[in-house]
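Quarterly update from the structural biology core.
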Amino acid sequence: MTARDPTTDLRRIAFLLERANEGTYRVRAFRSAAAALAGLPEQEIAQRAAAGTLAELTGVGDVTARCIAESLAGEEPVYLRRLQATAGVDLDDATGALRSALRGDCHLHSDWSDGGSSIEEMALAGVELGHEYLVLTDHSPRLTVARGLTAGRLRRQLERVAAINRSLPDGFRILTGIEVDILADGSLDQEDALLAELDVVVASVHSGLRDDPARMTRRMLRAVENPLVDILGHCTGRKVSAADVGLTGDGDRGHQAGRTRPPSQFDADKVFAACMATGTAVEINCRPDRLDPPKRLLRQALEAGCRFAIDSDAHAPGQLDWQRYGCERAARCGVPPERVVNTWPAAELLAWVAGHR
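Predicted structure, tokenized:
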């Protein structure tokens, strides 16, 4: 029987664990094992498998060693087979059509801020998902808990992205971006000149989430009306418990301490009207613990005439496939594909950005 590639199988397991929102320690076990194999000759790996010494390698444990041995024997690892058998239900037709229409993802993070994987790993996962582009949007400096990027670090990241793009497959590229904090007065947490250099700017509120509605409305309006802002990220800032409401639920059945956070309050009519007037897209955030905005506000933004961006907000490669959750919510609310900016090719997306800046 022909041997499989154990590194590919290990990475696939890690991807599926991330997509299922499993514990980070499990994901790390398989990614660490894949990294351990990447630096070894195939002959040594085979010899260790035959001798039963794979687990002696740093980064390889008993479970991952068993997966490696099964791959080398030409068998699909049992762990992988079980994950794929429980990977989730098929998408309905409307959701599937919208997911197929997506050309890219406009909000994701790398290990330059609070993501768990390198830019290269995120990019290659995007290629495997069939994307044409990913917009790298690491955090801005005042979000220190997320290792937000200072202006200097962001400039270095731009250089790194340019170098990585030269090595990626034809037809795929990383677009430059940021998830910039909307500060207490509505200003943006980065230099305007640097923001203007980026392909896409996502602006989000991460602090003062309990501001009174009038103040929160003023903050959001000032940000949305800034021509450098292209997408309004997770507009309510809420956190929901997927275990309680289900991935397709609306998350409005209450909030449990420690696991959830109620939505910020603001004048949605004014904010969405401003998004419509300025050409700012409203993000449909796909994270199972956000599902933001709630469907009530999603329908309100749709009626206001807003455009949307269906974004994974991924912090790991497997989470890029969370876009299916946002597509389901968008389809249920009647969002047409042509109103979703990341159904457009990169050139059209960038022309839209240039047109409203």
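The first helix runs from residue 6 to 19.
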